[in-house]
Write a structure and sequence with these properties.
Layout lengths: L1 H9 L8 E8 L20 H7 L4 E4 L2 E5 L2 E6 L5 E6 L13 H10 L5 H6 L1 E8 L2 E6 L6 H6 L11 H14 L7 E7 L3 E6 L10 E8 L3 H10 L4 E2 L4 H9 L4 E5 L4 E6 L12 H10 L2 H9 L4 E2 L21 H10 L6 E9 H18 L1 E8 L1 H9 L6 E6 L5 H8 L12 H11 L4 H17 L4 E5 L2 E5 L3 E3 L18 E2 L2
Parallel strand pairs: 1-10, 1-11, 15-16, 15-17
Antiparallel strand pairs: 2-3, 4-5, 5-7, 6-7, 8-9, 9-10, 11-19, 12-19, 13-17, 13-18, 14-18, 20-21
Helix pairs in contact: 9-11, 15-16
Protein backbone atom coordinates (compact mmCIF):
# COMPACT_ATOMS: atom_id res chain seq x y z
CA UNK A 1 0.00 0.00 0.00
CA UNK A 2 2.84 2.41 0.80
CA UNK A 3 4.39 1.61 -2.56
CA UNK A 4 1.06 2.24 -4.31
CA UNK A 5 0.62 5.59 -2.54
CA UNK A 6 4.15 6.62 -3.51
CA UNK A 7 3.59 5.60 -7.11
CA UNK A 8 0.35 7.55 -7.28
CA UNK A 9 2.06 10.58 -5.79
CA UNK A 10 4.83 10.44 -8.37
CA UNK A 11 2.24 10.19 -11.15
CA UNK A 12 0.50 13.41 -10.18
CA UNK A 13 0.52 15.83 -13.15
CA UNK A 14 2.64 18.94 -12.94
CA UNK A 15 1.40 22.05 -14.74
CA UNK A 16 3.79 23.20 -17.44
CA UNK A 17 5.41 26.58 -16.87
CA UNK A 18 4.09 29.42 -19.08
CA UNK A 19 6.06 29.84 -22.29
CA UNK A 20 6.22 32.17 -25.28
CA UNK A 21 4.54 35.41 -26.22
CA UNK A 22 1.36 36.45 -28.00
CA UNK A 23 1.07 39.93 -29.47
CA UNK A 24 -2.04 41.87 -30.41
CA UNK A 25 -2.33 44.77 -32.83
CA UNK A 26 -4.82 46.96 -30.96
CA UNK A 27 -7.06 49.41 -32.79
CA UNK A 28 -7.38 51.98 -29.99
CA UNK A 29 -4.96 53.90 -27.79
CA UNK A 30 -4.35 52.04 -24.54
CA UNK A 31 -4.65 54.81 -21.98
CA UNK A 32 -4.10 54.19 -18.23
CA UNK A 33 -7.81 54.81 -17.65
CA UNK A 34 -8.50 51.40 -19.23
CA UNK A 35 -6.44 49.69 -16.46
CA UNK A 36 -8.77 50.64 -13.60
CA UNK A 37 -12.22 49.03 -13.26
CA UNK A 38 -13.40 51.96 -11.12
CA UNK A 39 -13.45 54.21 -14.19
CA UNK A 40 -15.18 51.79 -16.55
CA UNK A 41 -17.36 53.82 -18.98
CA UNK A 42 -20.49 52.52 -20.71
CA UNK A 43 -18.52 50.64 -23.36
CA UNK A 44 -16.85 47.24 -23.53
CA UNK A 45 -13.33 48.45 -24.50
CA UNK A 46 -11.72 48.32 -21.01
CA UNK A 47 -12.45 44.60 -20.71
CA UNK A 48 -9.78 43.98 -23.33
CA UNK A 49 -7.39 44.71 -20.45
CA UNK A 50 -9.53 43.95 -17.39
CA UNK A 51 -9.93 40.25 -18.29
CA UNK A 52 -6.15 39.94 -18.05
CA UNK A 53 -5.18 42.22 -15.15
CA UNK A 54 -8.22 41.93 -12.92
CA UNK A 55 -10.97 39.57 -11.89
CA UNK A 56 -14.60 40.00 -10.90
CA UNK A 57 -16.67 38.40 -8.20
CA UNK A 58 -18.86 37.15 -11.04
CA UNK A 59 -18.18 37.54 -14.75
CA UNK A 60 -19.07 36.08 -18.14
CA UNK A 61 -17.08 32.96 -19.01
CA UNK A 62 -17.44 30.29 -21.69
CA UNK A 63 -20.93 28.85 -21.43
CA UNK A 64 -21.93 30.95 -18.43
CA UNK A 65 -22.87 34.66 -18.53
CA UNK A 66 -22.57 34.88 -14.73
CA UNK A 67 -19.79 32.49 -13.74
CA UNK A 68 -18.56 32.42 -10.12
CA UNK A 69 -15.04 33.80 -10.11
CA UNK A 70 -13.61 35.64 -7.09
CA UNK A 71 -16.94 34.77 -5.48
CA UNK A 72 -17.17 31.01 -5.24
CA UNK A 73 -20.92 31.37 -4.58
CA UNK A 74 -23.65 33.90 -3.87
CA UNK A 75 -27.23 33.90 -2.64
CA UNK A 76 -30.31 36.14 -2.54
CA UNK A 77 -32.79 36.40 0.31
CA UNK A 78 -36.41 35.45 -0.31
CA UNK A 79 -37.53 39.06 -0.13
CA UNK A 80 -34.92 40.13 -2.71
CA UNK A 81 -33.34 42.65 -0.36
CA UNK A 82 -30.09 40.91 0.58
CA UNK A 83 -27.33 39.46 -1.65
CA UNK A 84 -24.45 37.64 0.01
CA UNK A 85 -21.20 36.70 -1.75
CA UNK A 86 -18.67 34.17 -0.49
CA UNK A 87 -15.14 35.21 -1.49
CA UNK A 88 -13.07 32.37 -2.93
CA UNK A 89 -10.48 31.01 -0.53
CA UNK A 90 -6.96 31.10 -1.91
CA UNK A 91 -7.59 33.93 -4.39
CA UNK A 92 -4.68 36.37 -4.30
CA UNK A 93 -3.68 39.69 -5.76
CA UNK A 94 -0.47 39.99 -7.77
CA UNK A 95 1.37 41.39 -4.72
CA UNK A 96 0.57 38.24 -2.75
CA UNK A 97 -2.19 39.70 -0.57
CA UNK A 98 -5.39 37.63 -0.23
CA UNK A 99 -8.62 38.84 -1.79
CA UNK A 100 -11.02 39.62 1.07
CA UNK A 101 -14.51 40.94 1.70
CA UNK A 102 -12.92 44.29 2.63
CA UNK A 103 -11.55 44.55 -0.92
CA UNK A 104 -15.02 43.83 -2.31
CA UNK A 105 -16.60 46.61 -0.25
CA UNK A 106 -13.75 49.00 -1.08
CA UNK A 107 -14.06 48.32 -4.81
CA UNK A 108 -17.81 48.95 -4.75
CA UNK A 109 -17.45 52.18 -2.74
CA UNK A 110 -14.68 53.35 -5.06
CA UNK A 111 -16.54 52.60 -8.32
CA UNK A 112 -17.42 55.77 -10.23
CA UNK A 113 -17.97 54.60 -13.81
CA UNK A 114 -21.10 54.15 -15.92
CA UNK A 115 -24.06 52.88 -13.94
CA UNK A 116 -22.61 54.00 -10.59
CA UNK A 117 -25.54 56.35 -9.93
CA UNK A 118 -28.45 53.91 -10.21
CA UNK A 119 -26.43 51.08 -8.67
CA UNK A 120 -25.31 52.93 -5.55
CA UNK A 121 -28.60 54.76 -5.07
CA UNK A 122 -30.38 51.44 -4.60
CA UNK A 123 -27.88 49.85 -2.21
CA UNK A 124 -28.59 50.65 1.42
CA UNK A 125 -25.35 49.20 2.77
CA UNK A 126 -22.43 46.89 2.07
CA UNK A 127 -21.44 44.85 5.12
CA UNK A 128 -18.29 42.83 5.70
CA UNK A 129 -19.62 39.77 7.53
CA UNK A 130 -16.19 38.14 7.87
CA UNK A 131 -13.03 38.04 5.73
CA UNK A 132 -14.70 35.71 3.20
CA UNK A 133 -18.27 37.03 3.17
CA UNK A 134 -19.78 40.34 2.06
CA UNK A 135 -23.44 41.30 2.21
CA UNK A 136 -25.29 43.85 0.05
CA UNK A 137 -28.55 45.22 1.44
CA UNK A 138 -30.88 46.90 -1.04
CA UNK A 139 -33.35 49.65 -0.18
CA UNK A 140 -36.05 47.71 -2.01
CA UNK A 141 -36.18 44.68 -4.33
CA UNK A 142 -34.53 45.39 -7.66
CA UNK A 143 -34.68 42.93 -10.54
CA UNK A 144 -31.57 44.41 -12.16
CA UNK A 145 -29.14 44.30 -9.24
CA UNK A 146 -27.08 41.44 -10.65
CA UNK A 147 -27.25 42.92 -14.17
CA UNK A 148 -25.83 46.25 -12.99
CA UNK A 149 -23.42 44.80 -10.45
CA UNK A 150 -22.22 41.43 -11.73
CA UNK A 151 -21.96 41.83 -15.50
CA UNK A 152 -19.68 44.07 -17.59
CA UNK A 153 -22.50 46.61 -17.70
CA UNK A 154 -20.40 48.18 -14.94
CA UNK A 155 -17.01 47.47 -13.38
CA UNK A 156 -18.25 47.59 -9.78
CA UNK A 157 -17.72 43.86 -9.11
CA UNK A 158 -14.14 43.83 -10.43
CA UNK A 159 -12.00 43.78 -7.32
CA UNK A 160 -8.89 45.83 -6.56
CA UNK A 161 -6.63 45.61 -3.47
CA UNK A 162 -7.70 48.15 -0.85
CA UNK A 163 -4.35 48.37 0.95
CA UNK A 164 -2.35 48.82 -2.25
CA UNK A 165 -4.64 51.51 -3.70
CA UNK A 166 -4.58 53.44 -0.43
CA UNK A 167 -0.79 53.16 -0.32
CA UNK A 168 0.02 54.33 -3.87
CA UNK A 169 -3.00 56.59 -4.49
CA UNK A 170 -5.27 56.83 -7.52
CA UNK A 171 -2.62 58.01 -9.98
CA UNK A 172 -0.11 55.49 -8.69
CA UNK A 173 -2.60 52.67 -9.19
CA UNK A 174 -3.17 53.64 -12.81
CA UNK A 175 0.58 53.80 -13.45
CA UNK A 176 1.23 50.39 -11.86
CA UNK A 177 -2.04 48.49 -11.40
CA UNK A 178 -2.24 45.41 -9.19
CA UNK A 179 -5.12 43.03 -9.75
CA UNK A 180 -6.21 39.45 -9.15
CA UNK A 181 -6.35 38.37 -12.80
CA UNK A 182 -4.31 35.76 -14.70
CA UNK A 183 -1.68 38.31 -15.80
CA UNK A 184 0.26 40.91 -13.87
CA UNK A 185 1.38 44.33 -15.04
CA UNK A 186 4.98 44.60 -16.31
CA UNK A 187 5.19 47.88 -18.22
CA UNK A 188 3.21 50.40 -20.21
CA UNK A 189 4.15 53.00 -22.75
CA UNK A 190 0.91 55.01 -23.02
CA UNK A 191 -0.31 55.07 -26.59
CA UNK A 192 2.38 52.59 -27.66
CA UNK A 193 2.42 49.25 -25.87
CA UNK A 194 1.28 47.32 -22.78
CA UNK A 195 3.19 44.26 -21.54
CA UNK A 196 1.79 41.69 -19.10
CA UNK A 197 3.26 38.50 -17.63
CA UNK A 198 1.58 35.30 -16.45
CA UNK A 199 0.63 35.20 -12.75
CA UNK A 200 1.30 31.72 -11.42
CA UNK A 201 -0.92 32.33 -8.39
CA UNK A 202 -4.13 32.76 -10.37
CA UNK A 203 -6.85 30.69 -8.71
CA UNK A 204 -8.40 29.19 -11.85
CA UNK A 205 -5.24 27.95 -13.57
CA UNK A 206 -1.73 29.03 -14.49
CA UNK A 207 -1.76 30.57 -17.98
CA UNK A 208 -0.05 28.68 -20.80
CA UNK A 209 1.41 31.78 -22.46
CA UNK A 210 4.05 33.65 -20.46
CA UNK A 211 3.88 37.14 -22.00
CA UNK A 212 1.07 39.17 -23.55
CA UNK A 213 1.89 42.30 -25.52
CA UNK A 214 -0.78 44.76 -26.68
CA UNK A 215 0.70 46.99 -29.37
CA UNK A 216 -1.17 50.14 -30.37
CA UNK A 217 -1.45 50.34 -34.17
CA UNK A 218 -4.21 52.84 -35.04
CA UNK A 219 -3.95 52.45 -38.82
CA UNK A 220 -5.92 49.47 -40.11
CA UNK A 221 -3.67 48.71 -43.08
CA UNK A 222 -0.62 48.79 -40.81
CA UNK A 223 -2.30 46.31 -38.45
CA UNK A 224 -2.95 43.93 -41.32
CA UNK A 225 0.61 44.32 -42.63
CA UNK A 226 2.02 43.50 -39.18
CA UNK A 227 -0.17 40.39 -39.05
CA UNK A 228 0.97 39.25 -42.48
CA UNK A 229 4.64 39.67 -41.52
CA UNK A 230 4.14 37.72 -38.28
CA UNK A 231 4.98 40.71 -36.09
CA UNK A 232 1.63 40.31 -34.28
CA UNK A 233 -0.53 37.25 -33.76
CA UNK A 234 -3.99 38.83 -33.59
CA UNK A 235 -5.13 42.07 -35.22
CA UNK A 236 -8.33 43.71 -34.05
CA UNK A 237 -10.82 45.52 -36.30
CA UNK A 238 -10.05 44.85 -39.97
CA UNK A 239 -12.86 46.08 -42.22
CA UNK A 240 -13.90 46.60 -45.83
CA UNK A 241 -11.46 45.73 -48.63
CA UNK A 242 -8.74 44.94 -46.08
CA UNK A 243 -10.98 42.26 -44.55
CA UNK A 244 -11.42 40.77 -48.03
CA UNK A 245 -7.63 40.81 -48.46
CA UNK A 246 -7.21 39.11 -45.08
CA UNK A 247 -9.57 36.31 -46.14
CA UNK A 248 -7.51 35.70 -49.28
CA UNK A 249 -4.15 35.56 -47.48
CA UNK A 250 -2.87 31.99 -46.91
CA UNK A 251 -2.19 31.25 -43.26
CA UNK A 252 -4.39 34.07 -41.95
CA UNK A 253 -7.93 33.67 -40.62
CA UNK A 254 -10.79 36.16 -40.50
CA UNK A 255 -12.42 35.74 -37.08
CA UNK A 256 -15.60 37.80 -36.57
CA UNK A 257 -17.02 38.27 -33.09
CA UNK A 258 -20.49 39.44 -32.15
CA UNK A 259 -21.62 41.27 -29.05
CA UNK A 260 -24.39 43.74 -28.07
CA UNK A 261 -22.82 46.56 -30.06
CA UNK A 262 -24.71 49.38 -31.74
CA UNK A 263 -23.45 52.53 -33.43
CA UNK A 264 -25.78 55.48 -33.72
CA UNK A 265 -25.83 59.23 -34.29
CA UNK A 266 -26.82 61.35 -31.29
CA UNK A 267 -27.97 64.86 -32.29
CA UNK A 268 -27.12 66.41 -28.93
CA UNK A 269 -28.28 69.84 -30.15
CA UNK A 270 -31.90 68.60 -30.37
CA UNK A 271 -32.63 70.26 -26.99
CA UNK A 272 -31.60 73.68 -28.37
CA UNK A 273 -34.74 75.37 -29.81
CA UNK A 274 -32.55 77.40 -32.18
CA UNK A 275 -30.94 74.33 -33.75
CA UNK A 276 -32.37 72.61 -36.86
CA UNK A 277 -31.90 69.35 -34.93
CA UNK A 278 -34.64 70.48 -32.52
CA UNK A 279 -37.25 69.60 -35.18
CA UNK A 280 -38.13 65.87 -35.13
CA UNK A 281 -38.77 66.03 -38.89
CA UNK A 282 -35.09 66.81 -39.38
CA UNK A 283 -34.08 63.85 -37.23
CA UNK A 284 -36.51 61.58 -39.09
CA UNK A 285 -35.08 62.82 -42.38
CA UNK A 286 -31.59 61.98 -41.14
CA UNK A 287 -32.75 58.44 -40.35
CA UNK A 288 -34.16 57.99 -43.84
CA UNK A 289 -30.95 59.33 -45.41
CA UNK A 290 -28.75 56.55 -43.97
CA UNK A 291 -28.11 53.61 -46.33
CA UNK A 292 -27.51 50.95 -43.70
CA UNK A 293 -27.33 48.03 -46.13
CA UNK A 294 -24.58 49.75 -48.14
CA UNK A 295 -22.59 50.52 -44.98
CA UNK A 296 -22.89 46.89 -43.88
CA UNK A 297 -21.65 45.55 -47.19
CA UNK A 298 -18.86 48.08 -47.67
CA UNK A 299 -17.39 47.87 -44.16
CA UNK A 300 -18.44 44.50 -42.74
CA UNK A 301 -18.76 42.24 -45.82
CA UNK A 302 -22.48 41.96 -45.10
CA UNK A 303 -21.81 40.26 -41.74
CA UNK A 304 -23.28 43.07 -39.59
CA UNK A 305 -26.91 44.07 -38.96
CA UNK A 306 -28.75 47.28 -39.70
CA UNK A 307 -29.54 49.00 -36.40
CA UNK A 308 -33.18 49.72 -35.58
CA UNK A 309 -32.52 51.29 -32.19
CA UNK A 310 -29.67 52.37 -29.96
CA UNK A 311 -30.49 49.22 -27.96
CA UNK A 312 -29.11 46.16 -29.80
CA UNK A 313 -31.56 43.56 -31.07
CA UNK A 314 -30.24 40.65 -29.02
CA UNK A 315 -30.32 42.46 -25.69
CA UNK A 316 -32.82 41.49 -23.02
CA UNK A 317 -35.94 43.73 -22.89
CA UNK A 318 -35.28 45.09 -26.41
CA UNK A 319 -38.38 46.49 -28.10
CA UNK A 320 -38.31 46.08 -31.87
CA UNK A 321 -39.24 49.31 -33.68
CA UNK A 322 -40.17 49.35 -37.35
CA UNK A 323 -36.94 49.59 -39.37
CA UNK A 324 -36.08 52.81 -41.15
CA UNK A 325 -36.15 52.59 -44.93
CA UNK A 326 -33.44 54.23 -47.02
CA UNK A 327 -35.44 56.96 -48.75
CA UNK A 328 -33.48 60.04 -49.80
CA UNK A 329 -36.47 61.60 -51.57
CA UNK A 330 -38.65 61.47 -48.47
CA UNK A 331 -35.73 62.75 -46.37
CA UNK A 332 -35.49 65.88 -48.56
CA UNK A 333 -39.26 66.40 -48.30
CA UNK A 334 -39.07 66.29 -44.52
CA UNK A 335 -36.26 68.85 -44.49
CA UNK A 336 -38.34 71.13 -46.72
CA UNK A 337 -41.36 70.74 -44.42
CA UNK A 338 -39.14 71.72 -41.50
CA UNK A 339 -38.13 74.90 -43.34
CA UNK A 340 -34.88 73.74 -44.97
CA UNK A 341 -35.63 73.19 -48.68
CA UNK A 342 -31.96 73.72 -49.51
CA UNK A 343 -30.66 71.75 -46.57
CA UNK A 344 -28.66 73.27 -43.75
CA UNK A 345 -25.27 73.29 -42.04
CA UNK A 346 -25.63 70.68 -39.32
CA UNK A 347 -22.39 71.52 -37.54
CA UNK A 348 -19.81 68.94 -36.56
CA UNK A 349 -20.14 65.17 -36.58
CA UNK A 350 -17.69 64.05 -33.89
CA UNK A 351 -16.52 60.46 -33.55
CA UNK A 352 -13.55 58.49 -32.27
CA UNK A 353 -10.69 57.16 -34.37
CA UNK A 354 -11.98 53.69 -35.26
CA UNK A 355 -15.63 54.07 -36.12
CA UNK A 356 -15.60 57.80 -36.79
CA UNK A 357 -13.32 57.38 -39.79
CA UNK A 358 -15.38 54.50 -41.23
CA UNK A 359 -19.02 54.47 -40.15
CA UNK A 360 -18.90 58.18 -39.34
CA UNK A 361 -17.61 59.09 -42.78
CA UNK A 362 -20.21 56.88 -44.50
CA UNK A 363 -23.04 58.39 -42.44
CA UNK A 364 -21.81 61.93 -43.08
CA UNK A 365 -21.76 61.24 -46.83
CA UNK A 366 -25.34 59.96 -46.71
CA UNK A 367 -26.51 63.01 -44.77
CA UNK A 368 -24.65 65.41 -47.05
CA UNK A 369 -26.40 63.76 -50.01
CA UNK A 370 -29.81 64.93 -48.77
CA UNK A 371 -28.58 68.38 -47.73
CA UNK A 372 -27.52 67.94 -44.12
CA UNK A 373 -23.98 69.28 -44.31
CA UNK A 374 -21.67 68.06 -41.53
CA UNK A 375 -17.95 68.44 -40.89
CA UNK A 376 -16.38 65.22 -39.65
CA UNK A 377 -14.18 65.53 -36.56
CA UNK A 378 -12.16 62.54 -35.30
CA UNK A 379 -10.84 62.22 -31.73
CA UNK A 380 -8.75 59.62 -29.91
CA UNK A 381 -11.12 57.25 -28.11
CA UNK A 382 -10.21 57.92 -24.46
CA UNK A 383 -10.34 61.69 -25.01
CA UNK A 384 -13.64 61.36 -26.87
CA UNK A 385 -15.20 59.33 -24.07
CA UNK A 386 -14.06 61.85 -21.47
CA UNK A 387 -15.39 64.89 -23.34
CA UNK A 388 -18.60 63.04 -24.17
CA UNK A 389 -19.20 62.19 -20.51
CA UNK A 390 -18.31 65.75 -19.47
CA UNK A 391 -20.94 67.10 -21.92
CA UNK A 392 -18.39 69.16 -23.85
CA UNK A 393 -19.24 67.99 -27.39
CA UNK A 394 -21.74 69.68 -29.72
CA UNK A 395 -24.02 69.19 -32.69
CA UNK A 396 -24.00 65.49 -33.68
CA UNK A 397 -21.99 62.60 -32.24
CA UNK A 398 -21.25 59.20 -33.69
CA UNK A 399 -21.46 57.09 -30.59
CA UNK A 400 -21.96 53.49 -29.64
CA UNK A 401 -21.72 50.89 -26.95
CA UNK A 402 -20.83 47.23 -26.77
CA UNK A 403 -21.28 46.93 -23.03
CA UNK A 404 -23.34 43.93 -21.88
CA UNK A 405 -26.41 44.38 -19.74
CA UNK A 406 -30.01 44.89 -20.83
CA UNK A 407 -32.21 47.64 -22.24
CA UNK A 408 -32.44 49.48 -18.88
CA UNK A 409 -28.63 49.65 -18.57
CA UNK A 410 -28.49 51.30 -22.02
CA UNK A 411 -31.37 53.60 -21.21
CA UNK A 412 -29.71 54.67 -17.98
CA UNK A 413 -26.44 55.61 -19.68
CA UNK A 414 -27.77 57.19 -22.88
CA UNK A 415 -31.42 58.26 -22.56
CA UNK A 416 -32.38 59.11 -18.97
CA UNK A 417 -31.70 62.58 -17.58
CA UNK A 418 -28.56 62.51 -15.48
CA UNK A 419 -27.08 59.55 -17.35
CA UNK A 420 -23.37 59.53 -18.06
CA UNK A 421 -23.81 60.38 -21.75
CA UNK A 422 -27.16 62.23 -21.67
CA UNK A 423 -27.17 65.86 -22.81
CA UNK A 424 -30.90 66.38 -22.39
CA UNK A 425 -33.95 64.34 -21.55
CA UNK A 426 -37.69 63.92 -21.79
CA UNK A 427 -39.84 63.90 -18.60
CA UNK A 428 -42.00 60.98 -19.74
CA UNK A 429 -38.91 58.84 -20.32
CA UNK A 430 -37.48 59.77 -16.92
CA UNK A 431 -40.75 59.06 -15.14
CA UNK A 432 -41.27 55.64 -16.73
CA UNK A 433 -37.66 54.68 -16.09
CA UNK A 434 -38.05 55.42 -12.38
CA UNK A 435 -41.27 53.40 -12.40
CA UNK A 436 -39.72 50.31 -13.99
CA UNK A 437 -36.87 50.30 -11.48
CA UNK A 438 -39.31 49.65 -8.64
CA UNK A 439 -41.49 47.16 -10.53
CA UNK A 440 -41.00 43.57 -9.35
CA UNK A 441 -43.44 41.92 -11.76
CA UNK A 442 -41.35 40.98 -14.84
CA UNK A 443 -44.32 41.13 -17.21
CA UNK A 444 -45.40 44.60 -16.10
CA UNK A 445 -41.82 45.81 -16.11
CA UNK A 446 -41.36 44.61 -19.69
CA UNK A 447 -44.39 46.67 -20.72
CA UNK A 448 -42.93 49.78 -19.09
CA UNK A 449 -39.49 49.31 -20.67
CA UNK A 450 -41.15 48.74 -24.06
CA UNK A 451 -43.09 51.98 -23.62
CA UNK A 452 -39.91 53.92 -22.89
CA UNK A 453 -38.31 52.65 -26.09
CA UNK A 454 -41.47 53.43 -28.06
CA UNK A 455 -41.41 57.04 -26.86
CA UNK A 456 -37.73 57.39 -27.80
CA UNK A 457 -38.54 56.03 -31.26
CA UNK A 458 -41.56 58.32 -31.69
CA UNK A 459 -39.53 61.37 -30.69
CA UNK A 460 -36.71 60.27 -33.01
CA UNK A 461 -34.11 60.88 -30.32
CA UNK A 462 -31.38 58.92 -32.12
CA UNK A 463 -30.28 57.91 -35.60
CA UNK A 464 -29.35 54.21 -35.29
CA UNK A 465 -26.88 53.11 -37.96
CA UNK A 466 -25.37 49.64 -37.63
CA UNK A 467 -24.80 46.71 -35.28
CA UNK A 468 -21.26 45.93 -36.42
CA UNK A 469 -19.57 42.60 -36.71
CA UNK A 470 -16.14 42.94 -35.11
CA UNK A 471 -13.79 41.56 -37.79
CA UNK A 472 -10.38 40.38 -36.59
CA UNK A 473 -7.36 38.69 -38.10
CA UNK A 474 -5.58 35.68 -36.59
CA UNK A 475 -2.03 34.75 -37.60
CA UNK A 476 -0.19 31.46 -37.86
CA UNK A 477 1.11 31.07 -34.28
CA UNK A 478 -2.05 31.24 -32.20
CA UNK A 479 -3.44 27.76 -31.56
CA UNK A 480 -6.15 29.06 -29.19
CA UNK A 481 -6.88 32.76 -29.82
CA UNK A 482 -9.93 33.13 -27.56
CA UNK A 483 -12.03 35.16 -30.02
CA UNK A 484 -15.71 34.30 -29.70
CA UNK A 485 -15.10 31.97 -26.73
CA UNK A 486 -17.15 34.08 -24.33
CA UNK A 487 -20.60 34.98 -25.65
CA UNK A 488 -21.13 38.70 -26.28
CA UNK A 489 -17.44 39.52 -25.71
CA UNK A 490 -15.50 40.95 -28.68
CA UNK A 491 -11.91 40.34 -27.59
CA UNK A 492 -9.66 37.40 -26.79
CA UNK A 493 -10.57 35.70 -23.50
CA UNK A 494 -10.14 34.00 -21.14
CA UNK A 495 -6.45 34.85 -21.42
CA UNK A 496 -5.39 31.95 -19.20
CA UNK A 497 -6.78 29.53 -21.84
CA UNK A 498 -4.79 30.86 -24.80
CA UNK A 499 -2.19 28.63 -26.44
CA UNK A 500 0.68 28.96 -28.90
CA UNK A 501 1.28 26.34 -31.58
CA UNK A 502 4.25 24.16 -30.78
Amino acid sequence: MLGLVAALGMAAPVAAAPEGQLTWAVHITLAPTWFDPADKPGIVTPFMVLYALHDGLVKPMPGNPMAPSLAESWSMSKDGLVYEFVVRKGARFHNGEPVTAEDVKFSFDRYRGAGAGPLKSRVASVEVVDPQRVRFRLKQPWLDFMVFYATPATGAAWIVPKKYVEKVGEDGFKRAPVGAGPYRFVSSKPGVELTLEAFDGYWRKTPSVKTLVFRVIPDESTRLAALRRGEVDIAYSITGPLAEELKRTPGLTLAPTYFPFTLWLAPVDQWDPKSPWHDPRVRLGANLAIDRAAINQALYLGLAKAAHSFVPQGMDLFWAPPPYAHDGKRARQLLAEAGYPNGFDGGTLTGETIYGSSVGEAAANDLNHVGIRLKLRIMERAAYEQEYANKKLQHVLLTGSGAPGNAPTRLDAYAVTGGRYVYGGYPEVDGLFAEQVNETNPRVRKQIVDKIQQIIHQKVVFVPVIEPAFLNGVGRRAEVHGLGTIANHPYSAPYEDLKIKK
